[in-house]
Design goal:
binds uridine-5'-diphosphate; seven-stranded parallel sheet; 372 residues; binds uridine-diphosphate-N-acetylglucosamine; six-stranded parallel sheet; 15% strand
Length: 372
């Protein structure tokens, strides 16, 4: 039996690989081995528990405040050993994290074919997102199968000289996971969330974690949030805060004594997407949330200067507002106070897939391996 190895390490990779793992498991046509680098720990484990995924190997590399070099070298060494033992026929990686790049690199060193899920997203800016833009480009160089979520992503790969015969537009598996999880009748287990969404307040959902935003840019974002809350009594900000200590320390300093902000632990995926579907507006620098919120009809203001996901901007549900506090405050106030502008953005559109991306990727992998 042919063997494939599915490798991931962070929360979003786990969410987006889970629907694919489900199909491989159900059909039992190839042997699958699940490897987690655990570049994330708690945030990864939340997803493994939800989707009942038990890894065959767990590198358990995460350390507080880890550097890019440490992540990359630990993974390279750890994965080499596993690849030697397991000798898979194909390795599947996802997206643009340091796990993605390091695992592809390790597989390449042993001349094992690589399939890249969510290939081809680009900003064309080397340092934004950092280091994800380059992680994704390097992974493209190393991969044999490129599963592009959109036609735009496919064109980006072609422009870089990737053979079009190896690129497949599949949609994004994030939509498969979302459709399986959002439920209009969902009841939160957490009393605070029920209380917030039963109130008459407008709830802004905030998330932020990008490395290029750490430090001054994040300070600007937080100061803008302060201004928004001080100026709008009917607004509450819900902030499931990333575990990165740099983010936590800054938030503590800037939001101390500020009313109207609820800083909570990262939410499990199920309550999180249901929060997203009930909130008024999303402010974020996340990649995945830029794909999910449009499908739920939620306007998103992106706290970055660039995005590798232009499709939802073109569709009008997502707007890049950058990290300048004036611009964040102005754009947020505009949506809070201008009903027509809000309604224009709050359209459920979904340029990222029809919920069947995993099935397409599964079929393509089987074909590649010659499995009937
Ligand atoms: C990583 C990815 C980023 C992705 C994000 C998804 C890289 C370089 N970055 O960024 O592309 O968008 O994941 O969330 O690959 N931490 C914990 N527990 C956790 C997770 C993180 O304590 O479960 C803390 C640790 O102190 C860790 C720090 O957060 O050192 C940063 O984690 P890291 O994976 O390096 O960066 P992220 O910003 O999470
Ligand atoms: N998410 C979650 N709980 C949270 C915040 C986000 O489950 O508290 C989910 C979200 O629905 C999306 C993914 O995590 O699927 C996005 O992860 P993140 O923003 O960390 O990474 P990125 O997408 O930017 O790589």
């Amino acid at each position: 039996m042919k063997k494939i190895m599915i490798i991931f390490g962070t929360r979003p990779e786990a969410i987006k690989m889970a629907p694919l793992i489900k199909i491989f498991r159900k059909n039992k046509k190839v042997e699958i081995k699940i490897i987690v680098t655990a570049q994330h720990r708690e945030m990864l484990d939340q997803i493994l528990t939800l989707f009942k995924i038990q890894p065959d190997y767990d590198l358990d590399i995460m350390r507080s405040g880890q550097s890019l070099t440490t992540i990359t070298t630990k993974i390279l060494l750890g994965i080499e050993e596993i690849l030697r033992i397991e000798k898979p026929d194909l390795v599947l990686v996802h997206g643009d994290t340091s796990t993605t790049f390091a695992c592809s690199f390790a597989a390449f060193y042993q001349q094992i074919p690589i399939g890249h899920v969510e290939a081809g997203l680009r900003t064309f800016n080397k340092y934004s997102p950092f280091p994800e833009e380059i992680n994704r480009r390097l992974t493209a160089c190393l991969s044999d199968l490129h599963f592009a979520p959109t036609e735009t992503a496919k064109q980006n790969l072609i422009q870089e000289g990737i053979n079009p015969q190896n690129i497949y537009v599949t949609g994004n598996t994030v939509i498969d996971a979302l459709y399986d999880t959002v439920n209009n009748n969902y009841q939160f287990k957490d009393a605070l969330l029920n209380q917030l969404f039963d109130s008459q307040q407008k709830i802004i959902l905030l998330t932020t974690h990008r490395r290029e935003n750490l430090g001054k840019p994040m300070e600007s974002i937080f100061l803008a949030i302060r201004d928004i809350l001080i100026a709008n009594e009917d607004v509450r900000v819900l902030f499931p805060i990333h575990y990165n200590p740099l983010i936590r320390n800054l938030a503590k300093t800037i939001f101390e004594d500020l009313e109207g902000i609820y800083i909570i632990e990262p939410l499990d995926y199920e309550p999180f997407v249901n929060v997203m579907s009930k909130c008024f507006l999303v402010l974020t620098d996340s990649g995945g949330i830029q794909e999910e919120a449009p499908a739920l009809g939620k306007p998103v203001l992106v706290l970055r200067d660039t995005t590798e996901r232009p499709e939802a901007i073109q569709a009008g549900t997502v707007k890049l507002v950058g990290i300048n506090p004036d611009s964040i405050v102005t754009e947020t106030n505009y949506l809070l106070h201008n009903h027509r502008a809000y309604i224009k953005m709050a359209n459920a559109i979904n340029p990222y897939g029809d919920g069947k991306a995993s099935q397409r990727i599964y079929d393509l992998v089987l074909k590649y391996l010659g499995v009937q």
